[in-house]
Amino acid sequence: MAGKKGARWTKYTGVRKGACVLCGTPIAKKLVARRHRSCAPCISTKRRDAHRLDPRPRLVSQAKRRAKKLVIPFGLMPNLLVIPTHCPVLGKPLEVGVGNASEYSPSLDRINPARGYVHDNVRVISYRANRIRSDASVGELEAVLAYAKSLPRK
Ligand SMILES: [Zn+2]
Fold first, then answer.
1. Mean pLDDT of the chain
2. 22-48 burial by CB neighbour count: b if 16+ within 10 A, else e?
């Protein structure tokens, strides 16, 4: 094996250079050049599993990007974020890593949108609850509720 003609082996893993350390399939040359040690499908599986296990790093990095775009404060640390088991607004269990962003994926709600993503200004609620609330004030939400209640029910 190791003496096989032309085979190059990485020092630490004993896996042939250019092969995925996880599944052994050859990796695209440009990925090898960028020092990737696993193939694209294995990388995305690994990322998905990591996200399912702990969605906080992704929530925080997405918030960082949004804060930059919206020019609002940012100061979140993944390990300080508390993700409840259920959406505190709708009471449904929060789902992580079920396909793409589902209705009950955890999402960060800014209590005061202008204060940005800082720890005493964010709560984790479902994506659905966040979308319904949007950036509405209490008065606006009450007006929407009154309107919804005034509509004839089928
Ligand atoms: Zn692989």
1. 87
2. eeeeebeeebeeeebbbbeebbeeeee
In the chain, where the domains are located: 14-53, 55-150
CA 43 / ligand 1 centre spacing (Å): 7
Summarize pLDDT for 104-121 with one digit per residue, the tens.
Answer: 999 999 999 999 999 999
The CA 14 to ligand 1 mean position distance, Å, reads 15
Distance 5 CA to ligand 1 centre (A): 24
- Separation of CA 41 and ligand 1 centre (Å): 6
Q: What is the distance in A from the centroid of ligand 1 to the CA of 104?
A: 31
Give the integer Cα–Cα distance in Å for 64 and 47. Answer: 19
pLDDT tens, 47-56? 888 988 999 9
- The domain 55-150 is classified under which CATH number: 1.20.1260.10, 3.30.70.1060, 3.40.50.2000, 3.30.40.220? 3.30.40.220
